[in-house]
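Practice problem 4.
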């Protein structure tokens, strides 16, 4: 029961983290850039918002975004963050499917506890890889933006990426820590049978090869 609770909790945390990484990848409010205070930048229409896919200008009456389509001329931190966040978002689907198929309530043909445990471990590794990709992207991107344009504050997309990476790391670790034991088949030397004539339990006779080895 405790094993199932840990696995379900880890799966829910990983799923929530996956959603957070997708939100961070799809939105463009990663960092806010400005050379002055917030009020001055808004009045001068210089408050900028930068994400993986676009640069936006924020003002009281205007919210204009320009897509970052020049792939070859983009800084390295933007291209690397894009690739890592896309990989993290794509790995969530097979990771979630593997974890769901390893649940005790899901039964597939020729399923054993060893196969389910292997599926859960692979899914947990996927979620940990997602967390590593998210952490690298959400740390490298603001550092690169600060070095190039002057970072003023973090946007909600960056917070979503941090929370998503933390939840994926927590959920993946919980899934990997769930160790289910396979009871297997009872060993012959520990087996007993009940006699029809009496109610006493008698041990089974040892196999012939065991007797021969004992004589030697």
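Answer key:
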């Amino acid at each position: 029961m405790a094993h199932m609770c840990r696995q379900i909790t880890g799966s829910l945390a990983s799923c929530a983290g996956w959603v957070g990484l997708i939100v961070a990848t799809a939105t463009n409010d990663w960092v806010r850039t400005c050379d002055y205070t917030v009020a001055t930048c808004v009045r001068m229409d210089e408050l900028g918002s930068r994400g993986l896919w676009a640069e936006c200008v924020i003002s009281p009456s205007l919210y204009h975004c320009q897509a970052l389509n020049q792939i070859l001329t983009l800084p390295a931190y933007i291209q690397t963050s894009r690739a890592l966040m896309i990989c993290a978002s794509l790995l969530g689907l097979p990771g979630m499917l593997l974890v769901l198929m390893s649940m005790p309530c899901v039964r597939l043909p020729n399923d054993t506890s060893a196969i389910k445990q292997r599926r859960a471990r692979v899914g947990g590794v996927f979620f940990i890889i997602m967390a590593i990709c998210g952490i690298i992207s959400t740390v490298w991107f603001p550092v690169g933006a600060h070095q190039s344009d002057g970072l003023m504050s973090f946007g909600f997309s960056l917070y979503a990426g941090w929370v998503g990476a933390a939840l994926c790391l927590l959920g993946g670790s919980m899934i990997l820590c769930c160790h289910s034991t396979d009871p297997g088949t009872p060993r012959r030397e520990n087996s007993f049978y009940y006699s029809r004539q009496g109610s006493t339990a008698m041990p089974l006779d040892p196999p012939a090869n065991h007797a021969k080895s004992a004589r030697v």
